[in-house]
Amino acid sequence: MLTYSVHGSLSGIVEAPISKSDLHRLILACSLAHGRTLIQRCTISEDIRATARVMQSAGATIQFQDNNILVEGISSHPTAPLQCDCSESGSTLRFLVPVFAALGYRATFIGHGKLPQRPMQPLLSELAAHGISITLPENGDALPLQISGTLQGGTFTFSGSISSQYITGLMFSLPLLEEDSRIVLTSPLESKGYVDMTVRVLQQFGVQINQTESGWEIPGRQKFHSPGQIVAQGDWSNAAFWICAGSICPKSEITVNGIDPSSLQGDKAVCNVLQQMGASLSIHQNSVSVKHSALHHTVIDASQIPDIIPILSVAAAVAEGETHIIHAERLRIKESDRLHAMYDCLNRIGADVTELKDGLIIRGKSILSGGTVHSFQDHRIAMSMAVASLVCKEPVLIQEPLCVAKSYPNFYKIFQSLGGTVNVVNMGEKY
């Protein structure tokens, strides 16, 4: 098994990668728009390739050009059934199932890793209630998933505790229908920032979404209009790793460029959480600078920021006192069970962590020991443990480290450029 040994101290300037969340949405919008659109300043991860691949199967033309992506929208609709390989990308699957349903495509969706076990309800029930025929495997998995029929408009009702990806998929789909539609939430929406990002992208492509007291009204018979060229946003989710690294690494000073504090991305809350813990941050128009400082305990509500909970858990592991992470149930259905993964990994390197049904209790220490962990084949776990190595006496050995390619292919290269060490140490037995 491939294992990386990571350790060291980081300082310097890093350019934030481009937001995977924004780029998924831009590729989809460009594919639904007439004509060509140039997306500038892109980070090409495995998840982004998955969305591009599936949209190409539907008739879009997508070319990767250095750091740009040129997209020509779907001009003719396929008549044969589509085979859609979503790889391990939940966004690809959950966005494109309702879009292809709205377009009337017959399609089979497959996936790899943990994706077949990640939930697709209640989205599928709502699609079935609005004209879509759905075939699922008998073993209870979500994939392979077959759809046929054409989606009908109407009222789509969800609890706000569902994945925001379901809402995004419908927001891209419902404007394409003949009928007007409504999305109604029966409780407050979690991960609201991701839905706000979706509304922003749709507005950039001329699509109208009207917010109501309980959800959104979405007029039908709309068309996506290409802006010609558009720039993808810097990614707060992955910038969070460097911001946390600068906060905890002794004698560190890190500046992350290319991130907008006015962004609608929910994960910009990493700055607020760290400041509550006593971090020394300077927030500028297009960057964040951070110096090492002594951190103290806090309460972290995960409901709106699930993707940065792994790296914030690392910060909590070296913060004075007892940090509580709450409302984190949905971390169990990500690329891994992230609550258990962080409990397991942090304890293996000397932290003091208790796992709860819906969160973690982390009792901070001044320094951790280091040791061997498994990535759980989850990009955010692997990157979090690399950052954790900065506060360990000994290196952290990460088994199956290359899963970072899902969102941040050059993560280890950047880690080294800031002064960290990354070495291949062995090919051993499975963890």
Note down, in words, how this protein is organized.
With 431 residues, this protein is α/β, with parallel strands linked by helices. It is 29% helix and 26% strand. The chain is built from 12 helices and 26 strands. The chain has a 4-stranded mixed β-sheet. Strands 2-17-19-18 form a 4-stranded mixed β-sheet, with helices on one face. A 4-stranded mixed β-sheet has the order 5-6-4-16, covered by helices on one side. α9 packs parallel to α11. The longest helix has 14 residues.
Can you give keywords for this protein?
4-stranded mixed beta sheet, alpha/beta, 431 residues
Structure described in brief:
The protein contains 12 helices and 26 strands. With 431 residues, it is α/β, with parallel strands linked by helices. The protein is globular and about 60 Å long.
Secondary structure layout:
Layout: E1 2-8, E2 12-15, H1 20-32, E3 33-34, E4 36-40, H2 46-57, E5 61-65, E6 68-72, E7 82-85, H3 90-103, E8 107-110, H4 123-128, E9 133-135, E10 145-148, E11 155-158, H5 164-173, E12 181-185, H6 192-204, E13 210-211, E14 215-218, E15 224-225, E16 229-231, H7 236-248, E17 253-257, H8 269-276, E18 280-283, E19 287-291, E20 299-301, H9 309-317, E21 322-326, H10 338-348, E22 352-356, E23 359-363, E24 371-374, H11 379-388, E25 396-399, H12 411-417, E26 420-427
Parallel strand pairs: 2-17, 3-15, 4-16, 7-8, 11-12, 20-21, 24-25
Antiparallel strand pairs: 1-25, 1-26, 4-6, 5-6, 8-10, 9-10, 12-14, 13-14, 17-19, 18-19, 21-23, 22-23
Helix pairs in contact: 1-2, 1-6, 2-3, 3-5, 5-6, 7-9, 7-11, 9-10, 9-11
